[in-house]
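Quick one - first record:
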Amino acid sequence: QVQLVESGGGLVQAGGSLRLSCARSGRTFSRSAMGWFRQAPGKEREFVAAITWTGGITDYADSVKGRFTISRDNAKNTVYLQKNSLKPEDTAVYFCADDKGYGTRYYDTNSWGSWGQGTQVTVSP
């Protein structure tokens, strides 16, 4: 079983920036894609960003395009989410995801087999 641990969340004012990290362990090497999702109070978990194993292909939810950047460092077994120009609407618990099923849709929460515990991001006005 893969273990995923998110870090970097916290309280930030609107317009500020945060960089989230997701460290994976249990299996040193992986060729799988990884993703970021978020869940706000009273809402379902939603797709934020995804990246392929090589980092050559990325995709983002429309709500974060131009503001968030997903990247990965396979040597460190870590995926990152740089979050700029933060808005109060970005307030949520952010989760990283791994073990996407072959041929499944990356924006579907049901496609991913492993999840981190989540890190809280609160953006104040």
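second record:
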Amino acid sequence: QAQLVESGGGSVQAGGSLRLSCAASGYIYMTYCMGWFRQTPGKEREGVAAIDSGGWTSYADSVQGRFTISKDDTITYLQMNNLKPEDTATYYCAAVRRCPDPLDRSQYNSWGRGTEVTDGS
């Protein structure tokens, strides 16, 4: 049974920073691709950032230069700097064995329950 648990969400003013963490257990190995996705009410989940076993990363254009994804053992991090109101969403951690298209949500088969991030003015 694969398990992913996100933490680190909260409320922050525009321009602030947060660091999200994703703890993995079960059948999720360090060779898996790990990704961060986000979702707002009435919209589908969109890919934010992803990292593969070799450390290669992918970012959505909307967060390029502001967010950084990294991985250490069983923890995957998302450092979010210069947060904007448009970043307000529920953020989900996801895992999959292979990710030829890292930001495609349909490729991932393990998901956490999400952590909320709110950006004020």
